[in-house]
């Protein structure tokens, strides 16, 4: 069985006969549109593909009599050095970055037997080498509300985080200054971390498809009408692929916090 491994390391385990290691990124989706000149519906398939490696290791040479597999359970050790700077494993609705190992048992005069396993690659990023991610971030948003035909002052929200670079398992401290001069009670202020994926096709031409997934949520509580309130809390980042996907040109990831 293969477990998670990082790039630039050795994979070790037990396989039979030969094994093929592969790493690839794939994007695929289709779009349907109506052509105005004949009012017919036309579907276009968009695809993108990148291959990072595809190598086979032969563990047994079948044309040597001494290497014919005997009856019973037989195992062979193996090791394979992954290339450096691989993008992290990722699974999305319109594409993936996937790493696999396939074991093949060559049986003369019979169909070959295959077994395939997926393993996970995590690309490690040293945030200390990205000083721009240590800068704090502040954003302000206003919203006007009309209540009973009387305009009131706009709601104002100022959201702050101390820096913009985080890793899985880390807590994000959030601070929100909320001004609510309206006659409407705010039942709850919630923050959602969204994973935004961008998929790019290569065939028949370059096009883009987007996917948004909520990955974390934080409720900060209510804000009464005609009042102001300082809200704060921490949002824990769940296990997630990093936003930096080195050497991948068809899938991009970013994370945003929406309030």
Automatic annotation (TrEMBL):
Pfam families: Arrestin_C (PF02752), Arrestin_N (PF00339). Keywords: Sensory transduction. SUPFAM superfamilies: E set domains. Residues 20-128 form the Arrestin-like N-terminal domain. One of its GO terms (cellular component) is cytoplasm. GO terms for biological process: protein transport. Residues 152-259 form the Arrestin C-terminal-like domain. Belongs to the arrestin family. This is Arrestin C-terminal-like domain-containing protein.
